[in-house]
Amino acid sequence: MELRMLESQQNQLDYKTFLSLLLQDELDARQVRKIQKLIRDARFGQELTLENFDFTWAPYLNRTQIRELATGVFISQGEGIILVGPPGTGKTHLAKAIGHEACRKGYTVLFYKFHQLFAELLRADSNGTIDRFLNKLIHCDLLIVDDFAFKKIDQKNSEFLYSIVDARYGTRSIILTSNRAMTDWMNVFPDPVIAGAILDRLAHQAHQIQLKGESLRKKLTTKNRKQDL
Ligand SMILES: Nc1ncnc2c1ncn2[C@@H]1O[C@H](COP(=O)(O)OP(=O)(O)OP(=O)(O)O)[C@@H](O)[C@H]1O
Ligand SMILES: [Mg+2]
After folding, report:
1. Which of 16, 77, 105, 129 could form a disulfide with 72 if both were Cys (CB 3.0 to 4.6 A apart)?
2. pLDDT per residue over 157-207, tens digit each?
3. What does the pLDDT look like over 51-60, one tens digit per residue?
4. Is 87 in the pocket of ligand 1 (CB under 6 A)?
């Protein structure tokens, strides 16, 4: 406000211009607060963005494809993304970075680790808040499930997962990351029929991105050590 007053005196701005600048500042501040809230509500944990994703560490990736996904068009089209590859190759980083970009575009995002999602579903089921929780999982613009098919889940949880995936199918996006090949995902479900129904919906029209190579965790430790010297 003070800065704007000084600016208007120095540049002899008329009252209308001064007011419209103030209004624009207020709108900008609101927009920033809104994005910060969306990022907080997504529960990403560690802040991993495209700005701190080094493409030279994953030269095989199609940068154009990643940048296009970061525009959020896949969300408006209800498409999924599946990131598969060995440990430490950047799957979680990319999933969070794309989620982060989605928040910047105003989309609501929820980030869950596979096992954490099912622990919370069971908790909600036992304390009577399951409908509210399922509703949240079904209606956010983008749902990210990290470490998909990490370990076996029971019948109840696979039914919860089916209802989420089925309700979102074709209209609301899901990003999955996994270090298991998609051909192994079937094995974590107790019932092959539900498994087939879930996996078929998840894979249909999803952008599949294969990550490769050695774990970058070691490289990162070396880089950080060098920076500390
Ligand atoms: N291209 C990259 N540029 C910068 N940092 C990267 C890159 N790829 C990975 N990292 C960093 O390396 C670490 C491991 O990456 P990440 O957690 O995304 O791997 P992951 O594929 O999800 O592994 P896991 O299967 O074990 O969960 C993280 O700290 C991440 O920020
Ligand atoms: Mg990961």
Report:
1. 105
2. 999 999 999 999 999 999 999 999 999 999 999 999 999 999 999 999 899
3. 999 999 999 9
4. yes
> 185 and 199 in contact (C-beta within 8 Å)?
yes
Kindly state whether residues 106 and 30 are assigned to the same domain: no
| Ligand 1 atom closest to Cα of residue 179 | 25
Q: Are residues 77 and 131 in the same domain?
A: yes
For the CA of 58, the closest atom of ligand 1 is: 1
In a domain? residue 12: no
How far, in Å, is the centroid of ligand 1 from the Cα of 21?
42
Tally the domains of the chain: 2
Determine whether the shortest distance from the Cβ of 149 to ligand 1 is under 6 A: no
Same domain for 57 and 26?
no
User: Of all protein residues, whose CA lies closest to atom 16 belonging to ligand 1?
Assistant: 90
Q: Within this chain, do residues 169 and 72 fall inside the same structural domain, yes or no?
A: yes
Q: Report the C-alpha gap between 147 and 155 in whole angstroms.
A: 19
Secondary structure element (H or E) that encloses residue 83, with its range? strand 81-84
Give the list of residues 6+ apart from residue 50 with CB closer than 8 angstroms, or none. 66, 67, 70, 97, 98, 100, 101
91 lines ligand 1 (CB under 6 A): yes
Structure-block tokens of residue 197 = 């129904």
Residue 68 and residue 21 share a domain: no
* Ligand 1 proximity of 45 Cβ (cutoff 6 Å): no
Q: Whose CA is nearest to atom 31 of ligand 1?
A: 93
* Closest ligand to the CA of 87: 1
Q: Look up the domain containing 36 and give its range.
A: 1-7+17-42
